[in-house]
Amino acid sequence: MKKGIMRPGHVQIRVLDLDEAIKHYVDLLGLIETDRDAQGRVYLKGWTEVDKFSVVLREADTAGMDFMGFKCISEDVVNARREELQAFGCEVENIPEGELSGCGRRVRFTAPSGHAFELFATKEQPGKWGVGEKNPEAWPRGIKGMQAQRFDHCLLYGTNLDKTLDLFRDVLGFDLAEQVVTPDGSRVAQFLTASMKAHDVAFIDHPEPGKFHHASFFLETWESVLRAADLISMTDTSIDIGPTRHGLTHGSTIYFFDPSGNRNEVFCGGDYHYPDHPPVTWDVDQLGKAIFYHDRVLNERFLSVLT
């Protein structure tokens, strides 16, 4: 947390049918609805998250991601990073307090990859859903579906990976935890972390900027991932691949799609990262094994289906 950024704070996802999306994210994934606003947006959170929301659903004509936000330790950090973002050359937009329900002011910018990100420090904190912060039980009664614990990260496809790494490392204080490189040393994938997690955001090189690959949610155990797979079949939800293990980060995973075609992941486990750890490197000819450790080959959907 060299630059005062703690963790992913939220992601706003565009969906084609809001009612169908709510069924998916609440009944299947197990997120908790916490609010709706005058724009018609729906606010959701994982049950272990203390902030009011981590996922915002917005009905639109096209699917995809509007923006991803990172929570900072203080408003002073937001101010300092805003100045550094401008010095780096990013166009910065100030979003007023309350534009997202229960969230303080945000600073939005576009990365060289073409994706919109924002920084904030203040958000209402109702606490963990169903268990509270004092003498908490092990888990809440009444939770639905996969019982997703938290929004964990996004994988994004876009351009200018080198400059995007410069931005996240030098301005925002992220570490490069893992990478995939070509024989000439060029990076085609980079996994970045502001914490001890294997990654808080990841990028894969793609000729078109600003594309959304998936939003990922944390589950507790491998058994939870297997149960998620059962629920995917029980609800006839469109599946991408899994259950399987990653080589990158070593998490155990399954991928599937929401009714609008946005990809979701639920996973458990995975590596940890400290600032003195050198980046883990995979050769590009081992990409199949890096992504899907058991099959050792990439399916076509994983590479080409983006929103």
Overview of the molecule:
By secondary structure, this protein is of the alpha/beta class. The protein folds into 2 domains: 116 residues, 2,3-Dihydroxybiphenyl 1,2-Dioxygenase, domain 1; 154 residues, 2,3-Dihydroxybiphenyl 1,2-Dioxygenase, domain 1 (Roll). Helix content is 19%, strand content 36%. The protein has 6 helices and 17 strands. The protein has a 9-stranded mixed β-sheet. The protein is globular, with a radius of gyration of 18 Å.
Summarize the topology.
Elements: E1 5-15, H1 18-28, E2 32-36, E3 42-45, E4 55-59, E5 64-72, H2 75-88, E6 92-95, E7 106-110, E8 116-120, E9 150-158, H3 161-171, E10 175-181, E11 187-193, E12 201-205, E13 211-218, H4 222-234, E14 239-245, E15 251-257, E16 263-269, E17 280-283, H5 287-291, H6 300-304
Parallel strand pairs: 1-4, 5-8, 9-12, 10-17, 13-16
Antiparallel strand pairs: 1-5, 2-3, 3-4, 6-7, 7-8, 9-13, 10-11, 11-12, 14-15, 15-16
Could you give a quick summary of the protein structure above?
This protein has 307 residues and is an alpha/beta fold.
Features:
307 residues, 2,3-Dihydroxybiphenyl 1,2-Dioxygenase, domain 1, 2 domains, 6 helices, metal-binding
Overall CATH architecture of the largest domain: Roll
Return the string of H and E elements.
EHEEEEHEEEEHEEEEHEEEEHH
Query: According to CATH, what is the topology of the largest domain?
Result: 2,3-Dihydroxybiphenyl 1,2-Dioxygenase, domain 1
CATH homologous superfamily assignment of the largest domain: 2,3-Dihydroxybiphenyl 1,2-Dioxygenase, domain 1
Structural class: alpha/beta
What is the residue-mean pLDDT, rounded to a whole number?
A: 93
Task: Give the N-to-C terminal Cα separation.
Answer: 30 Å
Low-confidence stretches: none
> Major sheet: size, sense and barrel closure?
9 strands, mixed
What best-fitting shape do the alpha-carbon axes yield? globular
Q: Provide the CATH top-level class of the largest domain.
A: Alpha Beta
Overall tally of structural domains: 2
Strand content: 35-45%
How many extended strands? 17
How much helical structure, as a percent, in the residues? 10-25%
Strand order of the largest sheet: 14-15-16-13-9-12-11-10-17
Radius of gyration using CA atoms only: 18 Å
